[in-house]
Amino acid sequence: MNLRDFIIERDIRQCDFAFMLKIDRTYLSQIINGRIPSLRIAKKISELTNSKISVEDIMSGKVLSYDGKTRKPSQKRCKELNQDMKNIMEKITNVGSYGKEKNKPRK
Hints:
Blueprint: H1 3-9, H2 14-21, H3 25-32, H4 39-48, H5 55-60, H6 75-94
Helix pairs in contact: 2-3
């Protein structure tokens, strides 16, 4: 059973379940859609579900998203993220200790 099914099965509104967890409803929505919560929140979810959803399953992402799988970015998005990371790493390695870019000709 995943978290979304549990909430629907019990006829609980997400905002009410979020209130019981003492978190914002938008954060609960993110958790339901695949975000891994903090250990404290995972334990609280397990308690509120009477251990039908275990802390281990929550922390591994097995029961969070509605289809039972952790969502992965598309291949196109992965390429974009990799390129962004390369650009960031390049900027980091090209910046000197005073925040000025290295190997840049002075005027």
